[in-house]
Design brief:
With 396 residues, this protein is α/β, with parallel strands linked by helices. Helix content is 34%, strand content 24%. α5 (185-199) runs parallel beside α7, α5 crosses α9 and α8 (262-276) crosses α12 (377-395). The structure holds MU-OXO-diiron. Residues 80, 82, 84-85, 146, 165, 224-225 line the site of MU-OXO-diiron.
């Protein structure tokens, strides 16, 4: 048995990265990441679909050489040219100089810009097909998922969608490739983190792409990151559709900054009141400690959000400000948001957070509990009322 064999004509030839600490030099990788690529064997020709990053080029090319010990692949199809999938292309081309590189016009422009490659190219249009003999690969343009050149490749005879980053997740593969041969638990939670960090800003384009691929019969989804989806395909599709629409589960994320612990008291009391009210999914994050990717993933998942910030230099506490910027960049919507804070001599944080959220497609809750220096009874009353209002909003 070859664990990398997906079907008789498709074999996994990607690589795992367990040493990169930050994806895009931003997002932590506690379980690593895989750069997936796939080898398609036709009766007349062969194709590689997507490559790997430059740091793993040698391993990626070794996998191809094992599959084709006496010949060269005919095509490299680039569904997505972000360097985590294209950094290996110069080395691949130097080993296989006659390989034909297939992509759309935007891909070719970036291929030239990133790597200076301009020869042996095949520029395709939306809906074009290449014929490998008994295999037909059709190209489906899905722009802005999450780069402008992104497309998918559909293997018609095998009903396989090579989906680029869509349906992807963080987490290196641990032996097996296809979901039915592994424990997939971490990959679904890592899909929240991956989507929230990398793709969320482009949710409307993800939705358009899903409308376009919805009529296709699909036995497998082969993404560029994480497991090949087969048995659990409906679950990852449902999760991705929910994320792209900002649909949410009942639960509350409390993201707070605190310099001396006073603001922490608001967060803890809010959590306690929400739990008293029967809300089971509550996630408290001290924004100075929890990696932002984990907070964003929880915000992507749950309906309620409470942002709590001290006033710092007459502004929002910087890590809270960074989180607020991140969620606004991603076009947050369909969330119930509470705001709370603290100050010592001049209150600014609450007002500034609320003003940045005004006009956004979210529900801003009242009141806005605030403490001056330390917790007093009036703040306690506001905490109780905000928790009650959050509970009502979650039940709407
Ligand atoms: Fe996995 Fe957008 O690159």
């Amino acid at each position: 048995m070859n664990i990398n064999r997906i079907t008789d004509r498709v074999t996994y030839c990607g690589v795992n990265d367990r040493t990169k600490s930050l994806f895009e030099n931003l997002w932590e990788l506690p379980y690593g990441v895989s750069y997936n690529s796939y080898f398609v064997q036709g009766t007349n020709a062969t194709a590689i679909i997507d490559a790997s990053d430059s740091g793993h080029a040698a391993g990626f090319i070794d996998h191809i050489a094992e599959l084709l010990p006496d010949s060269a692949p005919d095509y490299l199809i680039i569904n997505h040219i972000e360097p985590d999938h294209s950094g290996a292309i110069p080395m691949l081309k130097s080993k296989y100089p006659n390989i034909k590189i297939v992509g759309n016009a935007k891909t070719m422009d970036m291929l030239k810009g990133f790597y200076g490659i301009e020869d042996n190219l095949m520029t395709v249009a939306d809906g074009d097909t290449i014929d490998l003999g008994d295999c037909h690969l059709r190209f489906i343009f899905t722009p802005m998922v999450h780069w402008p050149e992104t497309m998918m490749t559909y293997f018609e005879e095998e009903r396989i969608l090579f989906s680029g980053d869509a349906f992807g997740c963080f987490g290196a593969l641990n032996g097996a490739v296809v979901d039915k041969q592994m424990d997939t638990e971490i990959y679904f939670s890592e899909a929240y983190r991956y989507y929230a960090c990398i793709v969320a800003k482009y949710g409307q384009f993800v939705g358009k792409a899903f409308d376009k691929i919805a009529p296709l019969p699909m036995d497998y989804i082969c993404s560029t990151h994480g497991p090949v989806w087969h048995e659990q395909k409906p679950k990852i599709i449902e999760q991705y559709i929910k994320m792209s629409n900002w649909e949410a589960e009942k639960g509350v994320v409390i993201a707070y900054g605190s310099m001396y612990g006073n603001t922490t008291v608001i967060a803890e009391r809010l959590a306690s009141k929400l739990a008293d009210a029967g809300i089971k999914s509550i996630r408290l994050h001290d924004v100075s400690y929890t990696p932002q990717s984990r907070i964003l993933a929880d915000i992507m998942r749950f309906k309620g959000l409470i942002l709590i910030s001290p006033t710092y230099n007459a502004e929002i506490f910087p890590p809270v400000e960074s989180l607020l910027t991140a969620i606004l960049e991603r076009g947050i919507k369909n969330r119930a948001i509470g705001v709370a804070g603290s100050y010592t001599w001049g209150s600014q944080a609450i007002r500034k957070i609320a003003s940045r959220l005004e006009g956004k497609p979210v529900t801003l809750l009242q009141p806005t509990p605030q403490l001056k220096q330390a917790l007093h009874m009036s703040t306690n009353d506001d905490i109780e009322l905000l928790a009650a209002n959050m509970k009502s909003e979650l039940e709407n």
